[in-house]
Amino acid sequence: MYPLDYIEPVFRPPSEWKSLILQVTNGCSYNKCTFCDMYTSDSKKFKPKKLEDIEQELQAIVASSLPVGRVFLADGDAMMLPFKRLKDILLLIKQYLPQVTRVSSYCLPRNLTNKTVEQLADLNQLGLKLVYIGCESGDDEVLALIEKGETYQSSLIALQKIKQAGMKSSVMILNGLGGPALSKQHAINSARLMNEAQPDFLSTLVVSFPLGEARFAKNFPQHQPFRLLNQQELFNEMKILLSELTLEKTIFRSDHASNYLVLKGVLGKDKAMLINTVQMAIDKSNSIPIRQEWQRGL
């Protein structure tokens, strides 16, 4: 355990489980998405951390002699920090932890509107190699209902900037986000966004509401009320998503604990195999491992 004084709760992508979680901001600067309960506690009011405090924490890590190979910049959208502050943080990491091979961060598409491709390329050269983009959906109707504050186009522009800067992107899409009424268009337009962006990594999670869904469901019209998709509906939505994807060499993962069905592959070479696996789950659910409810979680 690293000797850092975190403001809890702290979240990270599953793939960063071995990384040093360096909290350079607290909370999320936007924090209006109706599906997200991550930063709603009183302790998570958004605030950037002072540079001198970050330096002291890096000094404590060095003094601890604990091994650090990768660093993840927390919290929800550290990339909202100005270019100069991000550059200064990366320079401190290089100074105190020169052995680090990769720095990564969550990123909202809006975080990049005030950053040029050249600035992002500079950050990449300083070690920021990967950003996690929660696109959630490529469908503008769904994005408006969940108050994401983004559109298909704003997400695409951000993903293109990342690629042009030489960084890698890991995109998350939320299965079931549009409920039954918008399931098909959510899947089709999410695939369309991914086809244009060609991210390095793509993952899917199943939307869930541990604190209740009232805040989320309030925006859905009465004639199309929201409800969580059942298992078969989620499989059908996944089949549509995979069928519509025309990716070249994107690493695909649908193995988060929220998923009923574990899917792993590279798109497009594994597309047929992945679709076949989903079809087996639809047709013969007893013939393929499917998580039970007690095995699922966030």
Q: Can you identify the CATH superfamily?
A: tm_1862 like domain
CATH topology: pyruvate-formate lyase- activating enzyme
Distance between the termini: 22 Å
User: Which CATH top level class fits?
Assistant: Alpha Beta
SS class: alpha/beta
| Beta-strand content estimate | 15-25%
Portion of residues within helices: 25-40%
What is the averaged pLDDT score? Answer: 92
- The helix/strand order is EEEHEHEHEHHEHEHHEEH
Please report the total strand number as a whole number. 10
The number of helical elements comes to: 9
Low-confidence stretches: none
Radius of gyration, rounded?
19 Å
Quickly count the domains.
1
The largest β sheet comes out as: 8 strands, mixed
Short description:
The protein has 298 residues and is of the alpha/beta class. 34% of the residues lie in helices and 17% in strands.
Question: How would you describe this protein?
Answer:
- The protein has one domain (14-295): tm_1862 like domain (pyruvate-formate lyase- activating enzyme, Alpha-Beta Horseshoe), CATH 3.80.30.20.
- By secondary structure, the chain is an alpha/beta fold.
- The longest helix is centred in the middle third of the chain and has 15 residues, at 183-197.
- It has helices at residues 51-64, 83-96, 117-125, 140-145, 152-164, 183-197, 214-217, 231-244, 271-283, and strands at residues 20-23, 25-26, 47-48, 70-74, 102-107, 128-136, 168-175, 201-206, 250-254, 263-267.
- It contains nine helices and ten strands.
- It has an eight-stranded mixed beta sheet with strand order 1-4-5-6-7-8-9-10. A two-stranded antiparallel ribbon has the order 2-3.
- Helix 1 runs parallel beside helix 2 (83-96) and helix 8 packs antiparallel against helix 9 (271-283).
- The radius of gyration is 19 Å and the shape is globular.
